[in-house]
Amino acid sequence: MRIISRRLRLPRPGRHPAREAAAASSSLLLGLVLVSFFLINNFVPAASAVQTTEILPDTTVITEILTVTGQRTETVYTPPESEPPEYVPVSVDPLRISSGIGSPYAILVDMATMHTVAERSPDEKMYPASMTKVMTLILVCELNPDFSGEFCVTEEIVNEVAAGSGSNVGLAAGETVSVKDLVYSMMLPSACDSAKCLACLISGTEAEFAKLMNRKAEQIGMTGTHFSNASGMHSADNYSTARDIAALMSYAYENETARKVMSTESYTMSATEKHAARRIRNTVFRLDDTYTGERTMGKMTLICGKTGTANAAGRCLVSVAAAEDGRLYLLVTGGATSTRLLVDDTYYIYSSLCG
After folding, report:
1. Distance (Å, rounded) from C-alpha 351 to C-alpha 355?
2. What is the DSSP letter of 354?
């Protein structure tokens, strides 16, 4: 009984339960009407209401647009800018690298930050030899990105290359060669005759083309460089520095077409009236004169590059390689007295990055 009595509300003496119940019902009904009206006007969108969330392309700004009863309001949220990750230099002893190589000129650059990791006389004048062809490649890629057209080899070009003992692909006077074949033969087997053909095709003469080369060098920021020819055949007026060559290669690497050419291991030149189809190979991937297609330098993987060889310049190499963590490095070495020394220096420096 005690449980039941606690749950019941007994009428007080002198009150009228029926009348109070009716009044309570009326109050409850009125309250429900008022609450419904409030909800309809404040929380339930009209038939024309639209609620969307848009993510703007190529931005981190999220815009939320809410339209209620014909009124448009916008709320824009911009996430706070995050700080770039702190640069952590690789653990390399610059003195150990500079004292452990035979090449008199060298520079190693982290391409993510363009931070110089190690260097050896990077601003001293040096002869770039066929590393010069990287500049010729850049200009061709920018002025004729489709490699369209062809060129008829002149006897003058053939004689100039023969007299200068420059490397060549054996182009013959009167031979018509496509621009694409000239580009790949210039960069892979380092053909000076192909470089001269491209220069004459673009500017009429190699001297005029050299003016374009020097203008581009100035734009890139190569302050210690002067070009006098398109091929890198030795000339006292064709000089550079290891730091400038690094800047040149960094610029060329950003050009997708140039990077593709420099990364190619082998290429087949089309047949002409003077030659059958020929297979040519990239000197960067056969530094030991035995082509294996090998791209590894210790734990580093070569991506692309350009060799250079001349009596005054010695053996030179500019290359880009990737570490196991994906970070890219650019290395320039110049003035080595032998190909063996050039290879050893390159292996030594790249291996130093991996411990």
Report:
1. 7
2. T
Asked if residue 347 has pLDDT above 90, the reply is no
DSSP string, 282-338: -GGGGTTSS-----EETTEEEEEEEEEEETTTEEEEEEEEE-TTS-EEEEEEEEESS
- The sheet carrying 62-68 orders its strands as 50-55, 62-68, 71-77
139 against 68, higher pLDDT: 139
* Cβ contact 316:334 at 8 Å: yes
Q: How many CB atoms lie within 10 A of CB 11?
A: 10
Among 295, 353, 293, smallest CA distance to 327 is for 353
Alpha-carbon gap, residue 161 to 205, rounded angstroms: 15
Residue 166 has pLDDT above 60, yes or no: yes
Q: Which residue has better confidence, 20 or 334?
A: 334
Neighbours of 347 (CB within 10 A): 15
- Rounded to an integer, the average pLDDT of 198-216 is 98
Q: What is the pLDDT of residue 97?
A: 58
First to last CA, the chain: 89
Whether residue 305 contacts residue 316, with contact meaning beta carbons closer than 8 Å, is answered with no
Judged by DSSP in three states, 249 sits in: helix
CA distance 205 to 210: 9
Distance CA(230)–CA(136), nearest Å, equals 6
Mean pLDDT confidence for 121-139? 97
Give the model confidence (pLDDT) of 247-284 as tens digits. 999 999 999 999 999 999 999 999 999 999 999 999 99
Q: Which residues in 226-252 are b (16+ Cβ under 10 Å) and which e?
A: bbbbbbbbbbeebbbbbbbbbbbbbbb
120 Cβ neighbours under 8 A, 6+ residues apart: 97, 98, 101, 103, 104, 105, 106, 107, 242
Nearest to 134 by CA among 82, 101, 183, 96: 183
Separation between Cα atoms, residue 13 and residue 29, nearest integer Å: 27
